[in-house]
Design a protein that fits this description.
Number of helices: 10
Bound molecules: phosphoric acid mono(formamide)ester
Distance between the termini: 24 Å
Strand order of the largest sheet: 7-6-5-8-9
CATH superfamily of the largest domain: Aspartate/ornithine carbamoyltransferase
Number of domains: 2
Order of helices and strands: HEHEHEHEHEHEHEEHEHH
Strand content: 5-15%
Family: Belongs to the aspartate/ornithine carbamoyltransferase superfamily. ATCase family.
Function: Catalyzes the condensation of carbamoyl phosphate and aspartate to form carbamoyl aspartate and inorganic phosphate, the committed step in the de novo pyrimidine nucleotide biosynthesis pathway.
Mean pLDDT: 94
Radius of gyration: 19 Å
Largest sheet: 5 strands, parallel
Shape: globular
Subunit structure: Heterododecamer (2C3:3R2) of six catalytic PyrB chains organized as two trimers (C3), and six regulatory PyrI chains organized as three dimers (R2).
Catalytic activity: carbamoyl phosphate + L-aspartate = N-carbamoyl-L-aspartate + phosphate + H(+)
Number of strands: 9
Structural class: alpha/beta
GO biological process, one term: 'de novo' pyrimidine nucleobase biosynthetic process
CATH architecture of the largest domain: 3-Layer(aba) Sandwich
CATH class of the largest domain: Alpha Beta
Helix content: 25-40%
């Protein structure tokens, strides 16, 4: 039985297979519409979500399976004091696979010790978000045609941004990736990522304070939201929340084939005027998330379209 807790739980080859499968699902949807018949996905979301939860649910439905779960801790027995490990132990008797989001770092990993079904980490605090990473890799591969030889600028909240942490780990395994970190000093990348990923693997990176100074270099601009929910102090959030706002003016010097990504939700860090720019990929990115989650559910459940026919 496999779980997906950290993006590094998947080898580069396994990721390639997942992305190939997701591409095939887009091309041949009808082939996959019953592969998970009689299977159930439980979505246990102790923290809010739109894309991750609903794309998981849509993914399972489009595979012919069923969905159960809760969308907030308040509507579960967590409010009565039930532990996460008791919750998942019980739910693993009701479902064949579990997608779980939790505000505490490490909660999905701890849950794996008590379950009899695969667990997928759908985001744990400021730590990891491996299915967003699969979504991001699929977007990059489809939009740029490659996962090697790229300069990627990551902008905004790099301290608490789990999508950024997970994507850096995953991209560090591809060749000739140049990382540019664009953030205010207070929201810069945690030391453990710098030491364990960049320094250990001798990967090129630099820190800058404005997106304008590096815009012409970028193949990918990965924007992120300053996350109110991760701040202890509201005054700090208010001071930092509008640090970076991407608008049409800032794109004047960007490459014609720049790929602008954002895991979403957006607050105001990308002007809505950018949405019509052909380089804006963030809504396509959210859609790709459904297909790659379909591929992941199939893989962790060990089902295939060929077996089904
Ligand atoms: N990208 C992402 O995780 O979005 P949600 O919080 O809406 O799931």
């Amino acid at each position: 039985m496999r779980h997906l807790i950290d993006p590094m739980d998947l080898s580069v080859k396994e990721i390639e297979h997942l992305l190939d499968l997701a591409d095939d699902i887009i091309l041949h949807k009808e082939k996959y519409q019953e592969v998970c018949k009689h299977k159930k996905l439980a979505t246990l979301f102790f923290e809010p979500s739109t894309r991750t939860r609903l794309s998981f649910e849509a993914a399972m439905m489009e595979l012919g399976g069923n969905v159960l779960g809760f969308s907030s801790a308040n509507s579960s027995s967590a409010t009565k004091g039930e532990s996460v490990s008791d919750t998942v132990r019980v739910v693993s008797g009701y479902a064949d696979i579990i997608a779980m989001r939790h505000p505490k770092e490490g909660a999905p990993y701890a849950a794996t010790r008590k379950v009899t079904v695969p667990i997928i980490n759908a985001g744990d605090g400021g730590h990891n978000h491996p299915t967003q990473t699969l979504t991001d890799l699929m977007t990059i591969r489809r939009e740029k045609g490659r996962l090697n030889n790229l300069t990627i600028g990551m902008c905004g909240d790099l301290k608490f941004g789990r999508t950024v942490h997970s994507l850096i780990k995953a991209m560090s395994r591809y060749e000739n990736i140049n990382f540019i970190m664009i953030s205010p000093e207070e929201l810069c990348l945690p030391d453990y990522i710098i030491k364990d990923v960049f320094e250990k693997k001798n990967i090129k990176y630099k820190n800058v304070r404005t997106m304008e100074e590096v815009m012409p270099e970028l193949d990918i601009l990965y924007m992120t939201r300053v996350q109110k929910e991760r701040f202890f102090n509201e005054a700090d959030y208010i001071r930092l929340k509008d640090s970076f706002i991407l608008d049409e003016r800032k794109l004047v010097d960007a490459k014609k084939d720049l790929c602008i990504m954002h895991p979403l939700p957006r607050v105001n860090e990308i002007s809505t005027k950018v949405d019509d720019d052909p380089r804006a990929c963030y809504f396509k990115q959210a859609l790709y998330g459904k297909y790659v989650r379909m591929a992941l559910i199939m893989t962790l459940l060990g089902v295939s379209a060929d077996e089904d026919r």
